[in-house]
Amino acid sequence: MTIAVIGTGLIGGSLILALRKRKFAGRIIGVENNLQHRNIALLSGMIDEADTLESAVDKSDMIILCAPVDVNCALLPRILDRIEGSSKIVTDMGSTKADMAEASKNHPARGRYVAVHPMAGTEYSGPLAAIGKLFDYKIVIICDAGLSDPDALETTEKMLTSLNMRITYMDSAMHDIHVAYISHISHITSFSLALCVLEKEQEEENIMTLAGGGFESTVRLAKSSGETWAPIFTENAEYILEVIDTYIEKMKLFRSLIAYRDKEGLKELMDEANKIQKILN
Known about the structure:
This protein has 281 residues and is α/β, with parallel strands linked by helices. The protein has helices at 10-21, 35-43, 53-59, 69-83, 98-104, 150-162, 172-201, 213-219, 226-235, 237-259, 263-274, 276-280; strands spanning 2-6, 27-31, 49-50, 62-65, 89-92, 113-118, 139-143, 166-170.
């Protein structure tokens, strides 16, 4: 199978390494607008060749979108137009799905598209950040599976299984609600905390000398690429705003209890929050 990977950053690069190692792909073509990323992918042997989008689509059996979500959304109809009437498959690895569903809605080649979101990643970006085992034993969500042709779905499932991923299925709208709560808000709070500390650091130069493991783990996600995450926040704005409002309410509750020096109230609130352990374990 010849596979075209659109975007050779962390996700695309890690996918390429894994597919090559698991021998799922015989040939991998990279499509990358970033010249530095493209050169790294070529010189390292990550991809067999670099090509334009149109040429890569024509040469490939499967096309995998690993670009920022707004770029994926813009490219999907163009790719579906090009593969219409063929047995080619297009899938994506993006973190939002409702806009992708809308972009492909009613397209004659909709059945050739399989919407995929692997729950995997790191705070780093670019092909040098690629990890061959990034997807191993992680959850992967296939959205709106019933809208995909059976053969396209089966091949995509085989690919994900070859990556040692655990497949689950979800409606695209519900997917976007859930990831807003479990993924997107985590990044927003990390970015926000980093900005707070950086602002304070300007006044007190030694504040960072006190930073321990708890702080580092909390702001780790603030190292994530804005090029990747700004489109995610805007594409999933409706649900993220809902989560932010809920988060602000909880922060205000903590603020009120702290302002009143209410130790018992704070303890009860934190005891309630501790119940998340039962879910995570």
